[in-house]
Design a protein that fits this description.
The protein is an all-alpha fold. The protein has one domain: Rhomboid-like (Rhomboid-like fold).
Length: 201
C-alpha cells in the first residue's frame, strides 16, 4: 500500500511540474505577443502619435531607436497577423528547455534584424514589423539543433526546416517589393549567433 501511494504521489508531482512549466511558458509568450498587439491597437486608436516613425531608418542616428522598437510596430492588421503565427509557434519552441532560451533568441534576432536593416536598408525608408524576430527564432532553432546535437533540438530544427525552409530562403532575398529582406536576413543571422553563444542545452 505505501508503495502504491508513493507511485501515485510521484505521478501527480510530475504532472503538476509539467503544468507549471507549460503555464510559465504560455504566460511569457502571451505577454510578449500580447504587448505587440497592444501597441498596434494603440497606434490605430491614437494615430496622431505616429508610432511607426520609430522604426529603423537606415544610417540615421535617430533611426537606431528602431532596433528596439521596430518589432512592436506594424503597418496593418494583415501585417501583424502574418507575423503572429510564427511568433507563437517558433517562440514556443524557443522557450524549451529553458525560458532563458527564448530571451536569448529574441535579443539576438532584434539586434541582428535592426542592425542589418540600419546598415543595408535603402535611404529614407522605415523598417517595422516582427518578421525579423520570426526569422531569428527559425535561425536559432535550426542552429541550436546543429550545435547541440541534442535529439529534441534536432527534431525541432527538422520541423522548422521543413515548415519554414522555403519561406526563410526567399524571405532573405531582395525579391519582394516593400518587404524588409534586410530585417529577415539580420534576424536569421542574429538567431544563429545567439544559438552559437548559448550552446549548452
Amino acid at each position: 500500500m505505501p508503495q502504491d501511494s508513493t507511485r501515485r504521489s510521484g505521478t501527480t508531482s510530475t504532472s503538476d511540474s509539467l503544468f507549471v512549466q507549460l503555464k510559465a511558458r504560455g504566460l511569457v509568450l502571451a505577454a510578449f505577443v500580447g504587448s505587440i498587439w497592444l501597441v498596434f491597437f494603440l497606434s490605430v486608436a491614437l494615430p496622431f502619435l505616429h508610432l511607426n516613425r520609430h522604426g529603423v531608418v537606415p544610417r540615421t542616428l535617430g533611426g537606431l531607436q528602431g532596433i528596439l522598437f521596430a518589432p512592436w510596430l506594424h503597418a496593418s492588421m494583415m501585417h501583424l497577423v502574418a507575423n503572429t503565427g510564427g511568433l507563437l509557434i517558433l517562440g514556443w519552441l524557443c522557450t524549451w528547455p529553458r525560458i532563458a532560451n527564448f530571451w536569448q533568441a529574441t535579443i539576438g534576432a532584434m539586434l541582428g534584424a535592426g542592425l542589418c536593416a540600419w546598415l543595408l536598408g535603402a535611404p529614407y525608408t522605415v523598417h517595422i514589423g516582427a518578421s525579423g524576430l520570426v526569422f531569428g527564432y527559425a535561425g536559432y532553432l535550426v542552429a541550436r539543433g546543429y550545435y547541440t546535437r541534442h535529439v529534441l533540438a534536432m527534431l525541432a530544427a527538422l520541423f522548422v526546416a521543413a515548415s519554414y525552409g522555403l519561406t526563410m530562403l526567399f524571405g532573405v532575398m531582395p525579391i519582394y517589393p516593400g518587404v524588409s529582406w534586410q530585417s529577415h536576413l539580420g534576424g536569421a543571422l542574429g538567431g544563429i549567433l545567439a544559438a552559437r553563444l548559448g550552446r549548452p542545452f
